[in-house]
Amino acid sequence: GRLEAVTQQMGYHPQYLDSFLKTQHYLMHMDGPLPFDCRHYIAIMAAARHQCRYLVNLHVLQFLRAGGDPQWLRGLDFIPPKLRNLNEINKILAHRPWLITKEHIEKLLKISEWSWSLAELVHAVVLLAHCHALASFVFGCGCEQDEGLGGRGPLKPLSPGNQCFCEATAGNGCSQELLRINRKRSLDSCMELDSLRERMQRIHVETEGREETRLLQQDREEGEGQEAEVGVQDGRQLSIALTHLRGSLLADTDGEVTSATNLSCYMQDPDFGYQDFARRDEDQTQVFRIQDYSWEDHGFSLVNRLYSDIGHLLDEKFRMVDGLQSSAMAKRQGCEPSVFKRGIWNYIHCMFGIRYDDYDYAEVNQLLERMLKVYIKTVTCYPEKTNPEMFDRFWKQFKHSEKVHVNLLILEARMQAELLYALQAITQYMI
């Protein structure tokens, strides 16, 4: 479950990192409504919307380790209709979440044998929002470009390279007992890429051997020939995975991973992207008013009821990012830390059409300089367009950890925005 570049960047804020790791591990590896292979495939679909090879490659490997069908890695045309039907809300949540309606929810819940349960759908929605937001962080901190280096800037190594995702939380508040249970139950063992590649290559060689045997025995007993053919078909399934890994994960002699994946097979309608939210006085129904549906009063209880305990983990994460120290950043802008953070948070929500009636949006222009606003909007709305210079150019006088803090605010504000729209639609369907 390696996310070393991500964890090293988040390591500048270790309390938040601990909360993030627990949520990530619970979503992907602990008991829940969705099968483990489906969770990783949903993550692949979500990351592909933003062309995030870093996350796609990670979840391709975890999908295979969880026993996923290698055929699925050929694209959406090769997955079960139930999973493929998730594509529409994946697309909308990633780019224009305000378009989600109860009709989208109803369609997924009432498609005869391919229907989703409410619990499964909530798990899927949280996964989608989590991976979309994490893609923003990956691009925002440069993990996508500098995957093998752990991102930009001087980094604090958090843990030895052979530690797994859950082990990185040790010493950050995660109890040893929880770690022991997680290690036992997790399907995400610390298998190195080299080991997986060797296993796949061995299978490939064995497959070729079976093919030769089949050809030699073809003129002999028919039964033996048929048995060999079955073995070849099994081998071909795994050979597909090897082919995909060769195409998507090119390893050099040092074992560093280079991305070369064509992600178009994991998404439909690739031209669908973010558009500025339309604010029209004559159509106020489009504006999402936070006093009508908020995380604290509505979203938390719904998600926690349908997917046990995830609400508590998400709520802890939202509170943790809000509690991070930002006094230096705020001081440079001449305001209180809480005022500065709220300006960033509300600006992000505003781009998704979420409005706070008790907030004066004129403060955004006073608090956030133009270059910072451009950076926040790019990372939030179309992170795949983030270039290496953007991270280095905004706030040259600020510390690396402060820039990471801004990216954590982007991650959490974006995730909450997607969840609010999706959970509101589910609530309207249930009513």
From TrEMBL:
Disordered: annotated span: 209-229
GO cellular component: cytoplasm; nucleus
Gene3D superfamilies, per the entry: AhpD-like
Gene Ontology terms: biological process: cellular response to L-leucine; cellular response to leucine starvation; negative regulation of TORC1 signaling; positive regulation of macroautophagy; regulation of response to reactive oxygen species
UniProt keyword list: Cytoplasm, Oxidoreductase
Protein localization: Cytoplasm
GO MF term set: L-leucine binding; oxidoreductase activity, acting on peroxide as acceptor
Entry superkingdom: Eukaryota
InterPro entries tied to this protein: AhpD-like, Sestrin
Feature: compositional bias, Basic and acidic residues: 209-220
Catalytic activity from the UniProt record: a hydroperoxide + L-cysteinyl-[protein] = S-hydroxy-L-cysteinyl-[protein] + an alcohol
Family label: Belongs to the sestrin family.
Name listed for the protein in its UniProt record: SESN3 protein
Lineage: Eukaryota, Metazoa, Chordata, Craniata, Vertebrata
Gene: Sesn3_0
